[in-house]
Design a protein that fits this description.
The chain has 407 residues and is mainly beta. It contains three helices and 25 strands. Strands 15, 16, 18, 19, 20, 21, 22, 23 and 25 form a nine-stranded antiparallel sheet that branches. A four-stranded antiparallel sheet has the order 4-3-6-7, with no helix packed on it. The termini are far apart.
Length: 407
């Protein structure tokens, strides 16, 4: 009986002791020890809104990483860390080109910090200001609103705000564009031809803000064409009806933005260029077209796999039935070229690329005063390689001035 009782006592003791032995220890590798040595010979190189600081690392075995701190605005501390695998770091977020003091700390495995080594830095012009300058030099009135370009060589993450008064005269945000693209174009539309003020400014992710550009613009008249009037026309040489099963021409104007609602020409029939023709069902002066090249849940297909890269658009009131180009007029002075914001190689995309195809790519017509009823597209090249002999396109939306509608 005593032996059984002793056994249970020993068993209870083991239950209490074993969990304590197995408990993970998340404390620093070295609870004590010396403060690590300082970095030495810091050298700063100015960058747009940032600085790159190189230095020599301490030789302490206890050394773990370098921490840089500076006050980018009154009361706002910016901190950047770099491991012992590198001997430089970039600290960004500066909102002007004045001089700043950056303190560099060596941090040990025991979490102890060295005394700071100070270095004076002088950033170049922050991206928000250079982006702002590129915008205000290009902003102009257009169909239904305004348009402008943007250059962002530093690929900074910014927001571009466009404000304008509402119907009651209160200033509201009309559009906010989020981008880190090197170069891009934007438009704000949907307004009457009455003069209205627009205000534009740029802000980065640290709250640095550009000046505000304000000007009154007169939007040009346009209306969205009625897609229910559209129909495909098969001219000799066209691929209008020569399509992959189910991906017929009418998918281009069904307002569907998925892989299952796109138009795709048949492969193996003829090499590019491929042409197709549309009867708009009305006599119109065309102002612009919004093109969704490929909208897919699989990013691999965006800017790839037959999505059009360059194409031409022609208009006619009376096309020849033999498929010749005699009665066709080019509606743009240059071909339409699909733009990939990220600049990444085919097969690689980022959020800017995906969002651009969700929003669509916009192209204005130069021959907006020429009445047309028929459109003919010539797709010259596609994303995904010169060996592809097909293309696919998800949706087109046309705008302009309807002169006469047909039954």
């Amino acid at each position: 009986m005593k032996a059984i009782k002793s056994f249970y006592i020993l068993f209870l003791v083991m239950l209490l002791v074993l969990p304590a032995c197995n408990e993970d220890d998340h404390s620093p590798i070295n609870n004590g020890g010396d403060t690590p040595g300082q970095v030495s010979n810091p050298v700063a190189v100015s960058l747009p809104g940032a600085t790159k600081i190189s230095y020599q690392l301490p030789s302490d075995k206890n050394f773990l990483y370098v921490k840089a701190q500076t006050e980018i605005r009154k009361g706002v501390i910016r901190e950047v860390k770099a491991s012992y695998y590198t001997s430089n770091l970039i600290i960004d977020g500066f909102g002007d080109t004045t001089e700043y003091t950056v303190n560099l700390y060596s941090v040990g495995r025991n979490n102890l910090e060295s005394n700071p080594v100070s270095v004076t830095v002088k950033p170049k012009t922050p991206p928000v200001f250079s982006i702002y300058e590129s915008i205000i030099s290009s902003v102009q009135e257009t169909f239904g609103g305004i348009r402008f370009g943007m250059e962002n060589p530093a690929e900074a993450e910014v927001r571009i705000y466009v404000n304008t008064p509402d119907s009651l005269g209160s200033v509201i945000n009309a559009e906010t564009f989020y981008t880190s693209a090197i170069k891009d174009n934007f438009s704000v539309r949907g307004y009457d031809t009455i003069a209205r003020p627009f205000a534009i400014y740029v802000q980065d992710r640290w709250g640095n803000t550009s000046d505000v550009y304000e000007k009154v613009f007169h939007p040009w008249y346009e209306e969205k064409l009625n897609k229910t009037k559209f129909r495909g026309v098969q001219l000799p040489g066209d691929m209008t009806d020569n399509v992959q099963q189910g991906r017929v021409i009418i998918r281009l104007w069904d307002d569907g933005l998925t892989d299952n609602t796109m138009y795709q020409t048949n492969s193996g029939v003829k090499n590019l260029p491929h042409t197709f023709t549309i009867d708009l069902g009305a006599k119109v002066n065309l102002s612009r077209v919004l093109v969704h090249g490929r909208v897919s849940t699989q990013a691999l297909y965006i800017y790839n796999a037959g999505m059009p890269k360059e194409w031409e658009i022609y208009g006619s009131m009376n096309p020849n039935a033999d498929g010749s180009w005699d009665n066709w007029i080019p509606l743009r002075n240059t071909p339409c070229v699909s733009f990939k914001p990220s600049g990444l190689e085919v097969g690689q995309v980022n959020d800017d690329d995906v969002q651009r195809q969700k929003n669509g790519e916009e192209f204005e017509f130069d021959a907006s005063d020429i009445p047309v009823r028929y459109l003919r597209w010539k797709v010259n090249s596609v994303w995904g390689g010169t060996s592809l002999n097909f293309f696919n396109m998800t949706e087109i939306t046309l705008f302009g001035n309807v002169l006469e509608t047909y039954n």
